Amino acid sequence: MLLTLALILFVLWALGVFAFKVTAGVIHIVLVIAILIGLVHLFRGRRI
After folding, report:
1. Which of 1, 2, 4, 5 could lock 41 by a disulfide, CB 3.0 to 4.6 Å apart?
2. Average pLDDT, stretch 23-36?
3. Which of 40, 47, 48 is nearest to 3 (CA)?
4. What pLDDT was estimated at residue 17?
5. What are the CB-based long-range contacts (under 8 Å, 24+) for 34-43?
6. Mean pLDDT throughout 14-35?
7. Which of 17, 16, 10, 14 is closest to 33 using CA atoms?
8. Three-point CA angle 37, 38, 40, nearest 5°
């Protein structure tokens, strides 16, 4: 679940930077959030 959210945020960031040429700093916040969610997923692992 977290990994999916991180991937979606990363794709949105990539679209914002490359496709729409958004240069505002706000779009980089999306990247930071995606990385943080990915790290949380990595360190939490899958608990059964």
Report:
1. 2
2. 75
3. 40
4. 72
5. 34/5, 34/6, 34/7, 34/9, 34/10, 35/6, 37/2, 37/3, 37/5, 37/6, 37/9, 38/2, 38/3, 38/6, 40/2, 41/2, 41/3, 41/6
6. 73
7. 10
8. 65
- What's the N-to-C CA distance of the chain in angstroms? 14
Residue 15's CB: how many other CB atoms inside 10 A? Answer: 13
CA–CA distance, 6 with 44 (Å, rounded to integer): 14
> In whole angstroms, what is the distance from residue 16 CA to residue 24 CA?
10
Burial of 17 (0-12, 13-18, 19+ CB in 10 A): middle
